[in-house]
Each structure stands twice: as C-alpha cells, then as structure tokens.
Amino acid sequence: MSANVSPRGKQPTHTYDSAFLKACRREPVPHTPVWFMRQAGRSLPEYRKVREGIAMLDSCMRPDLVAEITLQPVRRHHVDAAIYFSDIVVPLKAIGIDLDIKPGIGPVVEEPFRTRADLARLRDLTPEDVSYVTEAIGLVTAELGSTPLIGFAGAPFTLASYLIEGGPSRTYENAKAMMYGDPELWADLLDRLADITAAFLTVQIEAGVSAVQLFDSWAGALAPADYQRSVMSASAKVLDAVSGHGVPRIHFGVGTGELLGLMGEAGADVVGVDWRVPMDEAARRVGPGKALQGNLDPTVLFAGTEAVEAKTREVLAQAKGLEGHIFNLGHGVMPNTDPDALTRLVDHVHTQTAR
To answer: Active-site residue 129, yes or no?
Structure first.
C-alpha cells in the first residue's frame, strides 16, 4: 500500500491532512512542514531537568517520561511533527542484549558479535518485550491531536555495526571485516536484524504513529557497490515489511550523498538528505516519485539569526518545485544549540513558505 492511501483502507485519521503527511505524500501543503531530528531532548533545559539522575535507557522505558520528552519540542517550537523519544538500540536491549548507553560515548555492547554462534543471541522481538512503547505512544498521541507522531528504528547495517564493533567507531573495521570476509554470516546477521527492526516498527505503527523513519546513521561509510551488494536488501526488507500499513516511510543516513538513489530504491516514500548535497541535486540523484527531507547544516544554528535565515532561504530555494519537501536539519540537533534559534527557524520556514 502506498503512502497516498489512508492506513488499512480506512477513512483518513485525525493526522492525515496535516502538512507533514501531505508533504510525505507529495501533495500540496499550506506551508513547508518542519521537524528536527533529535528535537526530543538534547538542547532543551526542560529535557535535562526531567532526565536528571535517570539513565538514558531507563528513560526510554518509562512511558510517562517518554511522553513528556516527546511533547516538549512540540510545545516549545511548534514543529509540524513529533518524533518518539527513544534510541535505536532499545529493541536490542529489549531482547536481552547486554548493552548500555554510556554518557559521552554512546551505546556500548558488553560482548561484541564476532561469530556465527552469536546469532543465537538475537531472538525475535515481541510486542510484550516493548509494552512500554505501546503505552507511551498512546499517551503521546492523546496529547498531540492533529500533530503527527513519527516512530523510528535503526537500520540493520547501523545496528550490526554497533553489535560487531561493541560501540561507536570511526573506521568500522570489524563490521567491514565480517562483511567482506564472511559474507554469509554478515547476510544472516543483517537478515535477523531486519526482522527485529520490522517488528519494532510494527509495534509503533499499531500503537498509533503516523509515519516511521529508518535511521541508517553509519551507512555513509559504505561505497555504493558495497551498500547495494551487502546492505540494501536488509533495509528493503524492513521497509517492505511495514508497507502494508499505509504510513509514510522515511529513510535517512549521514554522509550518504552517493547512496541517495539506492536508499530511495530500498523502498522509502521520503529520502532524508544531509547537508552535504543541495536539495535540487539530491532530487536528481533520488529520481521522481519520492519526497525529500532536509537539509540545513545543524552548525548554522550557532551563527546568529541573520545567517540562519539566509541559509534557510538557500535550502528552500533549492527545494522549490520538489514534489514534496519536509524541512529538517541535515543531522540531529546539537546539544548546545539555543532552543530559541530552533523556534525562530520553524517560524521562519512557515512564514517564507506560506501558500
């Protein structure tokens, strides 16, 4: 089912006619919709206050806290969509992988994956494993009204890289060694992760999210041929698994300018673009039939209002005439960003693009 059809053939939901979902479906919009990756938390003082003394993964498992953090940027910035507060390693933690999110480091896996025997540690994910997700989404959607909620998950390549490297990496040497040196094990690992990811997204969709985003945060480390040969089919499996729900599917990675066409081919309705590729060039690479999301450099927000507005107008000019455009940063909100700069940015985009 295409994103142009209301979910499961039913009448449009209370979010169906929102600017965000219209843009995802490449329909005319009253203004270019805006949301920000990592808008839930990061730079907000109210986020730091409610998270004080609570570990990241613990906060992801408390529905009341998840709901509050998810709603904070909607209240403050008046963005056109909320994104569910969580982390890409939550489904791995939920099935029993021994990992933690270390402050200042990121996810750290106690026993990295290196052999075929490690596949046995990846059991199927059930809705009961993440019941707190269902509860939290219910709380959030009840408050959001006509504002859509975006669910998300990590793509198989990025999750596999965390599992194999044991944490963040600059070189991905162990992950790539498996990909090149043991392609059968690599394929089986990504296939297993695709099933877990699809199950996690399905839980979110059935709980009430209006769209989903698949984050392949580390895919930019791959050459196009390697992505196409060794990674693309796993992401396509995830995106295809949720296609029947009729919600838009967004696919995003960092440093993926050379992969944009392939990421679109993997099955996304919307392709996210980082700041390295102009939106008009991104549209050429992706080809027709897809909406695009992006792509202001997050560091521009430190340069003052005049510079932010100038660069924003550049992005909007490059995106003019696209079938569908969702304004976003080219990556996540940086922790030291002035929240007021984000609020002004939303207002500026809405004002500049009002139809």
So the answer is: no
